[in-house]
Design brief:
It contains 12 helices and 11 strands.
């Protein structure tokens, strides 16, 4: 049986990124150095960040690979290093608009194959809400935001109006780790990506639970990358801490953290069949959506392979491969027929 498949976690960049360093008069921004055909170096000023291939910017190359992997639809979001929350707000707005217009153009060109998420200047919530409205106006389905915004965790009162606007505008939210905690102590072995990222996602989930964001905004549709990071494996510890030290944990929300399982989504990017089974049992298949981190090597290199390898019936696989994604996006299957 061929099951309709949506990948909610894929990243894309414009092929040609202007020199924001020259435009704004200071550095820290990413540009692409096209040094050989079909490949480019992501450069942060003059510092090498990552090598990418043309499937990171070429929609036709992506569609070709999607066809090979039996992926019907990709949800497009920027690469988190592009968030630029550290930049001056008006400059970050310009970067965000450039990236959002690029994604909207691809979605408009291939509406049956791609869904778009925008990025926002989250360091200025008023500007973020303005750009959120514009994202909706240009056809994007939601936004991708980081696991924190500079010194603000996701429970910070400054961020709440943005989440509230996402709920009011029916825009879904994809939360991706970035600027990993403790990175200065993890310079070797790729540890910021292997250890820091899962911790960042748990930080984001716990901040939103303890801060009462899910409680105050019950219609807010939020998905977290990388299988929820380290949160699923530590939810017992989180709940126990809540129970034994409510004076520290329950100061903003008196609801048990475990009660929020099933009230947000995670992607399926866990790389291990035992872990996938665990999160299906913990959270429910209707809240776990295929996510691959395409086109990067730390992602699932054969999209959907882990789900297809599991001894699940077609009904459960359909939830994981598209049903959960459609409910998070608040879209009907027939949009793509």
């Amino acid at each position: 049986m061929e099951i309709f498949t949506i990948d909610i976690h894929t990243h894309i960049l414009p092929e040609n990124i202007p020199s924001f360093r020259e435009r704004f008069g200071y550095g820290g921004f990413i540009h692409l150095e096209h040094h050989v055909p079909c490949r480019a170096r992501m450069m942060m000023d003059n510092k090498f960040f990552r090598e990418v291939e043309d499937n990171c910017w070429d929609a036709e190359a992506r569609i070709k690979e999607c066809n090979e992997h039996h992926v019907d639809v990709q949800v497009l979001s920027t690469v988190p290093v592009m968030f630029s929350y550290w930049a001056k707000p008006q400059d970050c707005l310009q970067v965000s608009r450039f990236l959002n217009d690029h994604i909207a153009e691809i979605v408009d060109r291939y509406p049956k194959r791609f869904i778009g998420l925008g990025t926002l200047p989250m360091q200025d919530p008023e500007l973020a809400i303005q750009e959120l409205q514009r994202c909706k106006d240009i056809g994007l389905a939601g936004v991708e935001i980081g696991s924190h915004v500079n010194d603000w965790n996701l429970n910070d009162p400054n961020i709440f109006p943005v989440f509230e606007a996402c709920q009011d505008l029916d825009m879904c939210v994809f939360i991706h780790p970035w600027d990993m905690m403790g990175k200065n102590k993890m310079e070797r072995y790729w540890l910021p990506w292997l250890v820091g990222m899962p911790a960042e996602t748990s930080l984001a989930i716990c901040s939103m639970i303890f801060g009462g964001v899910f409680e105050k905004l019950p219609r807010l549709r939020v998905a977290f990358a990388h299988g929820g990071g380290s949160f699923p494996a530590t939810v017992g510890r989180v709940e126990h801490g809540f129970n034994v030290r409510p004076d520290l944990c329950a100061v903003d929300n008196e609801i048990n953290p475990r009660d929020y399982l099933g009230k947000f989504w995670i992607d399926s990017l866990v790389h291990d069949p035992n872990v996938l089974q665990y999160v299906v049992d913990l959270i429910g298949a209707d809240r776990i959506a295929l996510g691959t981190d395409y086109p990067f090597p730390l992602g699932e290199l054969q999209p959907g392979q882990l789900i297809h390898s599991m001894p699940y019936d077609d009904r459960l696989k359909e939830k994981l491969l598209s049903g959960a994604a459609l409910s998070w996006l608040n879209l009907a299957n027939d949009k793509f027929s």
